[in-house]
Amino acid sequence: MIWVVGASGMLGQELSAVLKTKGLDAVGTDRDIDFRKADAVAAFTHGKDIQWVVNCAAYTAVDKAEDEPELAHSLNVDGPAVLARWCAANKANLIHISTDYVFSGEGNSPYREDDHPAPTGVYGVTKEAGEQAVRGALEQHIILRTAWLYGQYGPNFVATMLRLMREKPEFGVVNDQWGAPTWAFDLSQVIAHLIQTNASAWGTYHASGEGQVTWFGFTQEIYREAKDLGLLTSTPVIKPLTTAQYPTKAKRPAWSVLSKAKLKSVYGLTFPQWKDSLARYLHLIKG
Ligand SMILES: NC(=O)c1ccc[n+]([C@@H]2O[C@H](COP(=O)([O-])OP(=O)(O)OC[C@H]3O[C@@H](n4cnc5c(N)ncnc54)[C@H](OP(=O)(O)O)[C@@H]3O)[C@@H](O)[C@H]2O)c1
Q: β-strands 2-5, 182-183: how paired?
């Protein structure tokens, strides 16, 4: 049995749907079982034959984390540590989801898994410490660092841009931060494949959409595709901004592109080009 932790979140819902489609035996929990509490985890798992735990739960509000470092730490470090210890004691495997925010964002070539982590804000610091907690407690783990996640089950950049395009005659989007949009469906397919093939090359892997773009470029493509599909009737003016023109409480990485070479060479897994996934996603939500 697979236990999806954080099953009501954007990735957790998508993954639960994918596992169901594939006929895999899975159970999901969210705030109903507080994964930071070892006794709650023990009570929930009692009598269940859990072989894989997938941790999609996290504190994900990047700016708010600056004001709530203890809460972010408890969800992003203490929770994963509890899950890793439970897995170690019960001979289960853990897939733990992490982020591009573990890096400084100052590079200019795709980050490799063994590049030095240097997070700049509370969210990134706690996610990096969460990775270390998992590594320290459990050998049978796979940490998947993803980035720029969007999907049909939660608030996300694509949904926000579509709303702004409908509501505003003009708006600006940052054009000097680079990354790779990742459809939660594609990431869920990778997770399901790892489980179905009984993955056992433990360690840290990068798992995000293929290619690279700025938030502004991403928005332009959302606009173009949405217009083509008839999802939009408005014609807003979308302006490129610099990071300085769009200040945020937590610093955003200027460079967030992750190399997927390791995932490909070890597991033969690849992600689609981000533009292809975006087109499929918009087609799907068009209905
Ligand atoms: N979204 C992105 O762009 C992005 C990018 C890179 C990496 N990631 C990583 O990808 C993973 C999934 O992200 P996501 O966007 O799907 O996150 P999400 O939508 O915020 O989902 C996280 C889930 O965890 C739940 N949760 C909070 N506290 C809990 C607790 N004490 N016990 C159990 N569950 C609890 C949340 O519930 P509430 O909603 O009620 O708080 C939510 O359902 C995270 O590890 C995140 O760091 C995300």
A: unpaired
